[in-house]
Amino acid sequence: MPMTLFHKIIQREIPADIVYEDEHLIAFRDIAPQAPVHVLFVPKQDYATLNDVPADAPDVVGRLAAAAARYAKAQGFADDGYRIVMNCNGHGGQTVFQIHLHLLAGAPLGRFGTPQA
Ligand code: 5GP
Asked: What is the pTM of this model?
């Protein structure tokens, strides 16, 4: 799998505003936030898209969601609410091909899923 910019962030080859890291994943602020809080949760295992996560390895995705929920609670916005999103391939709008989960929060969020005009 080719090295993506997220691999470079994990390896500290390019800077990022890292808010959490453990042996399984890293979380850092999105460079182009789509909400007042926009954090990306990225596993350290390499999978280009959600389609590439083996059926017997659901923990990879579960850990991202659990880490996002922990972060929301720790930051005090869990009760107000938030959204988690994983984009997959072209129609999903994926642009970086190392799987990642978006955490969006900090204000009421609009509806989503509308096809592009
Ligand atoms: P995707 O479109 O693949 O679901 O999400 C990729 C996300 O990565 C986008 O929201 C984009 O703003 C973010 N991104 C792209 N380049 C960088 C970067 O160099 N640093 C950070 N922190 N985020 C980035």
From this structure: 0.97
